Amino acid sequence: MNDCIFCKIDRGEIPSQKLYEDEEIFVIKDISPKAKCHYLFIPKRHYKLLGEMTDEDQAILARTFAKIAALAPKLGLDGGYRVVINQGEDGGQTVPHLHIHVLGGEKLPI
Ligand code: 5GP
Ligand code: ZN
After folding, report:
1. CATH number of the structural domain spanning residue 60
2. Do 41 and 53 form a contact (C-beta atoms < 8 A)?
């Protein structure tokens, strides 16, 4: 067991509504939204950086991008969206568990 916030959410130790879940990933709303719609797509396996991915993690991440596109209409993202992965201190990563921000629901500033 680890103290990671996203692992705790996945295990149900921190309450959070999962909007989508399968054996590989889950999707939640960001607690501090930076756009009208702000979702986090989170692979269940705990790792921090893209550079730490195994071959299986790479395959899961590729499938996750396809799932973002498939779920977008149901998430209010018909007009388009922005995908962001913050990496490390300079990248502004605050939770050391790889996750994909998906923002939209409005015209985003450049
Ligand atoms: P990062 O800064 O690591 O790229 O993104 C972490 C994100 O997780 C932040 O946007 C932050 O608002 C969000 N976050 C942190 N703790 C929680 C939480 O307990 N629940 C949810 N839903 N989001 C969280
Ligand atoms: Zn974790």
Report:
1. 3.30.428.10
2. no
